[in-house]
Amino acid sequence: MKTIGRKDKIDLPEFQLFEIDAKIDTGAYGNALHCHHTKIEKRNGVDTLSFQILDPDHPDYEGQVFYTSKFSEKSVKSSNGELEHRFLIKTEIVLFGETTEIEFSLTDRSNMRNPILLGRTFLSGNYLVDVQLKNLSFKKKPIS
């Protein structure tokens, strides 16, 4: 297993987002991605989820709208203990130079320090968390 710190930087190649801050949270069951303007619309007769990632004040915010027909919906218990209705999407992340498929619930994390949260479903069996450390995968990236 790899050691990961309390925070790290991940890439989301499908969305052309790189070195995005992620909080490593062993207290959270699932993974969360900060999104806004999520809605289901018909595109070519197919239910399609549209959404935007990050906030306009984030340096990597492009204002781009993303679309996927590969989504589901679920009730999730939020950090404050309330049930929230969320959309779930699958995408790939790159961490420690390895590409892995991951499921994110889309939620408003604008009041949080990090736009991404990685929980136990992703960490279990793959990572040991050392809360005294951070950005271990980022530090190991090769210099181009």
TrEMBL record:
Q: Which residues form the signal peptide?
A: none
Task: Please give the coiled-coil regions recorded for this protein.
Answer: none
Name all Retropepsin-like aspartic endopeptidase domain ranges. Answer: 4-136
User: InterPro entries per the record?
Assistant: Asp_endopeptidase (IPR008503), Peptidase_aspartic_dom_sf (IPR021109)
Q: Which domain of life does the protein's organism represent?
A: Bacteria
What Pfam families is this protein classified in?
Zn_protease
Name under which the protein is recorded: Uncharacterized conserved protein
